[in-house]
Amino acid sequence: MPNDVQTTGTAPRSVIEHFAPENASLGNVELSIVVPALNEEITVGEFIEWCKEGLESAGVHGQVLIIDSSADDTAKIVLEHGGEVLRTPKRGLGRAYIDAMPYIRGKWIVMGDADLTYDFRELTPFVEEFRKGAEFVMGSRFRGSIEKGAMPGLHRYFGTPFTTWILNRIYRSNYSDIHCGMRGLTRAALEKIDLKSQSWEYASEMVLKAARLGLATAEVPVRFYKDREGRVSHHRRMGWLSPWVAGWLNLKVMLVYTPDSFLLKPGIALMAIGLLLSFGLAGGPVTIGNIGFSLHWMLFGVTCTTLGYSSVQIGVLARVMHGLRPVFVKRAQNFVTYDRGMLVAAVSVVAGVMLLATLVYRYVNHGLRLEAISHPAILGLLLIILGFQTFCFTLLMEMAQRVASKFRE
Q1: Beta strands 17-19 and 29-37: pairing type?
Q2: I need a labelling partner for 387 at 20 to 30 A (CA). Which of 18, 205, 247, 262 fits?
Q3: Hey, is 138 helix, strand or coil?
């Protein structure tokens, strides 16, 4: 793209254009540096030079691709310094990486920001991990260095450590800084991750999917600098609420992609307790030692069973829909077949109706009055509920499988 071509102004909606410096070689490379930029004319020129220095120091042939949605001279400056520009509409950070996929030429990818807060002169640690076989390489500011004033105290001492702790507990990972913007992965790993997030939450989606997919991961220290004089961070440009919105979006992704982690096992435990109480008290009150178990305990058991069964169903459906655990998904699909599900649902409902019939019989024979509570009838109601839940779950499993098959096609 010649330097006299107009590059200012937001790119038209849905239009994506790729520009490269004159005489640039566009063949395959080892490492692609892929970075979104929005109005970064103050820093982007020096950033491109940092990238060149980092590639040379690491001993790799690379590509510097800036995904630009700016209204200033960012794109023009990138081209003047020898970088490539992908002009896209302003649709969010996650979407920027999705749009860039067809234009990435390297087998390894390093992502980050073009604001000189991450030191792209130090690419060697990432390259070394790639050469060792790592598929996902996470940068860590806490294991590297953080310049004074670079990170607000609330983020440094609470927000980032807390959300990192949550993700590590859920995914049994060992990251120290899940919000670090500088990270690397192989082209094949990026395709496996299959980014869906359009905004800030892409960062958490990448980390948690890497954990779920069992990618070979590594963590390397990085340097984190404060903003250059005259530059205002995007969070500050968007107002004081922006970091909180970004944190909320990242937390949402953690929960959306892992409901099975906090629903499946607890649901199984809750359901087991509920079934034990419900069936144990179906014949009437039971006394163990000095403790009496009667109607209230049975109702508690019914509640535990229905809540636990719902949790298990949602957990299984989540794993099937996300498809991040292929072995589990195949087993679930083989076990929960349409015929088997409908049979279990029908048997459960019929058994429930038969138990409930005892209550109706007593009700009719006592002049349309009930003299005492019927524990078997309560168990019958539970079986009817479980049967209906099984019926719905079977249909949802069938729909999920059809959607997944269509998507693969």
Answers
A1: unpaired
A2: 262
A3: strand
CA atoms within 13 A on the CB side of 172: 5
CA distance 242 to 228: 20
- Dig out the tokens for 238 from the structure: 């968007």
Residue (of 224, 234, 14, 194) closest to 117 by Cα position: 224
132 touches 220 (CB < 8 A)? no
Q: Is 28 helix (H, G, I), strand (E, B) or coil?
A: coil
Give the CA count within 13 Å in the CB-facing half-sphere of 39.
10
**84 contacts 25 by C-beta, under 8 angstroms:** no
Q: Which helix (H) or strand (E) holds 84?
A: strand 84-87
Residue 402: its pLDDT value, please? 73
Q: Environment class of residue 49 by beta-carbon count within 10 Å: exposed (0-12), middle (13-18) or buried (19+)?
A: middle
Alpha-carbon span 372 to 94, nearest angstrom: 62
Q: Cβ distance 19 to 1 under 8 Å?
A: yes
8 Å CB contact between 49 and 19: no
Q: Which secondary structure element, helix H or strand E, spans residue 142, and what is its range?
A: strand 136-146
Which tokens is 256 given?
């959306």
Q: How far apart are CA 194 and CA 162, in angstroms?
A: 26
d(CA 384, CA 386): 5
Residue owning tokens 């030429």: 105
The pTM (predicted TM-score) of the whole model is: 0.72
Nearest to 325 by CA among 257, 267, 266: 257
Q: What is the pLDDT of residues 332-341, one digit of tens each?
A: 888 999 999 9
Backbone angles phi, psi at 30, to 5 degrees: -80, -45
1-39: pLDDT as tens digits: 444 444 444 444 568 999 999 887 888 899 999 999 999
User: H-helix or E-strand containing 58?
Assistant: helix 44-58
| Contact assessment for residue 112 and residue 36, using Cβ atoms and an 8 Å cutoff | no
Query: What is the pLDDT, as a whole number, of residue 243?
Result: 66
Tokens of 183: 């990270």
Query: Where do the DSSP E strands lie in 261-315?
Result: 286-288, 291-293
> Within the chain, what is the greatest distance between any pair of CA atoms?
97
Q: Which domains does the chain have, with CATH numbers?
A: 17-256 (3.90.550.10), 259-408 (no CATH)
Sign, CA torsion 105/111/116/120: negative
